Amino acid sequence: KLDWSRENFKCFRIHIMAGMEKLRVAVVGAGAAGLCAARHFLARQDLFAPPVLFELTKDVGGTWVYEERVGHYDNGLPIHSSMYRDLRTNIPKEVMSFPDFPFAKHLPSFVPHTEVRKYLEQYCDHFNIREHIRFGTTVDAVDPVKVKTGWKGLAWDITSSDSVDRSKSIKERFDVVMVCNGHFYDPYIPAIPGLGKFKGMLMHSHEYRSAEPFADKSVLVLGAGLSGLDIAMELSDVNAKVILSHGQKPLTCPMPQGVEQAPPVSKVLEDGIVEFQDGKRAEPEVFMLCTGYNFVYPFLNEQVGVQVKEHLVYPLYKFLLPPAYPSLFIVGICRAICPFPHFHIQSKFAISVLDGSFALPSREEMEKDIEMDMAARRARGVATRHILKLDSEQWAYNDHLAHLGGFQPLPRYWSNLYESNKVFRARDMLNYKTYNYNVVNETEWVVKNLQGQQ
Ligand code: FAD
Fold first, then answer.
1. Can you give the pLDDT of all 454 residues of the chain as single tens digits?
2. Are 306 and 359 in contact (CB under 8 A)?
3. Which residue spans adopt a coiled-coil conformation according to this UniProt entry (predicted)?
4. For labelling alongside 45, which of 52, 97, 112, 445 has CA 20 to 30 A away?
5. C-alpha of residue 31 to centroid of ligand 1, in Å
6. CA angle 400, 406, 410 (to 5 degrees)
7. How many angstroms does the Cα of residue 430 sit away from the middle of ligand 1?
8. pTM (global) more than 0.90
């Protein structure tokens, strides 16, 4: 049994300082999260060897690498990116960026996806990450192993293969694994009775690229999350007749032309007609599921005990590491967050765990902490499937990790501007992306000027 007591961590730290071998870090994925993790490990070469990033595609940027095709790459792997052609960000660049690397000054607040990809390329080069990436390499297995040396007797065997010729495979040993494989690529298909009987075109937003193919068509968009709303607006621009079906309270902000709201779909009838929860029916030509994505870790050994149930990845201490295997970190599973700054905080926290600046509690204490946190959320009426949805709680979470890890928290204007943007989006989804906050960097300025824009 591994002993993760405070004393042991202290010893480990002293060990490292005394000249033990540097820890070898593997990063799965070179999207925003993987790049961010690598940037912070590279800054700590006193303790860590340069990380190895495994990236199954030929590019950095993950979901920001727009791919015209849908389905599969030439090598048979499923297309990773869920980007659509005309997407502009829904978070202003002033707070979407990593806190230590702003977007270019000349850009507007809400940038096209191509600019985010460029930004990630620049981040990668600025922090000299590229030379550590193994492109075209898929991680197939992450297996824990007990060892005599290394990080408290724990190491990881990573099996990776050439993304084209899967028979070319190697196994290597690492001390730490950062799992950064993304969470927006495996479509979640809700269990709607009779769905298979739908006679028109059934698709998921993962396969949506542009509005033109839907011009003048009747489209049922299921889900009014950010993608559902965005896609409904794009469809309205090409004169599609959109039914936006969702389970939230009816949206009161001005809706795009040709978009009407409906309650959730209850079933699809024998003749392919769709029935809603209020009993009304429709026969759209297209049924577009904007229903989100599954968490998937096909490479992770079951022994690690990480389970995915009802959109919850569990058990993870601070939504990040399994108590029984605390040298593995699953970055960015929280939802309704400001992703890049969140990755920054989580990566720095992971390092504070590994270098001992945060003395990790015992396995039992961590498990108890997780249970108490879940219980508190459930007592507040949070359903299991929404536990990872941090929303405005993300700021307290970020601050908490920074406090525990003893590093700089995010400047306050981050939460101010992000939260203000959320309010504007809810009030005016048709126009909020035309706002320009460009030089915002002080709390008072943000509040004053955002109010001025009402
Ligand atoms: P990804 O970007 O998905 O990167 C994961 C990487 O891991 C990929 O490169 C993939 O190829 C690689 N990988 C996966 N499995 C393996 C494996 N087995 N072996 C090797 N490599 C592997 N965020 C914002 O901040 N603002 C926005 O406006 C915004 N809009 C969005 C719009 C859409 C349509 C979507 C889908 C997401 C949006 N997001 C937005 C969220 C976005 O997902 C995050 O900003 C961020 O890019 C996620 O980064 P990631 O590194 O976690 O995942």
1. 344 455 455 545 544 544 568 999 999 999 999 999 999 999 999 999 999 999 999 999 999 999 999 999 988 889 999 999 999 999 999 999 999 999 998 999 999 999 999 999 999 999 999 999 999 999 999 999 999 887 878 999 999 999 988 889 999 999 999 999 999 999 999 999 999 999 999 999 999 999 999 999 999 999 999 999 999 999 999 999 999 999 999 999 999 999 999 999 999 999 999 999 999 999 999 999 999 999 999 999 999 999 999 999 999 999 999 999 999 999 999 999 999 999 999 999 999 999 999 999 999 999 999 999 999 999 999 999 999 999 999 999 999 999 999 999 998 889 999 999 999 999 999 999 988 886 545 444 444 444 443 3
2. no
3. none
4. 97
5. 6
6. 55
7. 25
8. yes
Pocket test for ligand 1, best of 163, 181, 293 (most atoms within 8 A of CB): 181
DSSP 206: G
3-class DSSP state of 202: strand
Q: How high is the ipTM of this complex?
A: 0.99
Long-range CB pairs of 428-431, under 8 A, 24+ apart, other chains included: 428/253, 428/254, 429/229, 429/233, 429/251, 429/253, 429/254, 430/233, 430/253, 430/254, 430/256
